[in-house]
Design goal:
transmembrane, 22% strand, alpha+beta, three-stranded antiparallel beta sheet, Pilus assembly protein, TadE-like_dom, transmembrane helix, 3 strands, membrane
C-alpha cells in the first residue's frame, strides 16, 4: 500500500476554479453592459438622425414635433435596451424668413438599465443622448 505524502495538494484545482468563477462571471457581465451601451448609443444616434430628418420635412412646427417623436420611436422599436425614451425638437428654424438658411435640431435620450446585471460598481441606469441637425429647405414656406 502506498502512503500519500503530506505536501501533496489534492483538490486544490477545484478550489481555485471555484474561486475564479465569480471573477469570470463579473467579466462577462461587464462585457454585456458594454454591449448594451454600445447598442443603445448606435440606436440613439440613428433615432436622432431619423427624428431630425422627419422634423425637417414637416410643413409646420407642430407637425415637426409629432413627426420627430414618431420617427424616433419607430427607429428605436423593440430591439433596443432603452428603458425610457425622450425626444426634444428645436424648431426655432421654422421662424426664420424664407430665403434664410435654417435647421431643425432633434435630441433623443435613452435610459439603459444595468442593475439587472448584478455587477458591483455599475450604476443602476445609464443615460445615452444624441443630437442631430437637419437643414430646412431654404425656399419653402414655414409656419
Amino acid at each position: 500500500m502506498t502512503r500519500r505524502r503530506r505536501d501533496e495538494r489534492g483538490g486544490s484545482a477545484a478550489v481555485e476554479l471555484a474561486m475564479l468563477i465569480p471573477v469570470i462571471i463579473a467579466v462577462v457581465m461587464l462585457a454585456v453592459a458594454g454591449g448594451r451601451l454600445a447598442l443603445a448609443h448606435g440606436a440613439v444616434q440613428q433615432a436622432a438622425t431619423d427624428a431630425a430628418r422627419a422634423a425637417s420635412l414637416a410643413r409646420t412646427s407642430g407637425d415637426a414635433h409629432t413627426d420627430a417623436a414618431t420617427a424616433a420611436s419607430t427607429s428605436l422599436g423593440q430591439a433596443t435596451p432603452c428603458r425610457s425614451i425622450a425626444v426634444a425638437v428645436d424648431t426655432s428654424g421654422f421662424g426664420a424668413p424664407v430665403g434664410t438658411p435654417a435647421v431643425v435640431r432633434a435630441t433623443v435620450t435613452c435610459t439603459v438599465a444595468l442593475a439587472d446585471l448584478g455587477v458591483l460598481g455599475l450604476p443602476g441606469t445609464k443615460t445615452v443622448t444624441a443630437t442631430m441637425v437637419s437643414p430646412l429647405d431654404t425656399y419653402r414656406g414655414r409656419t
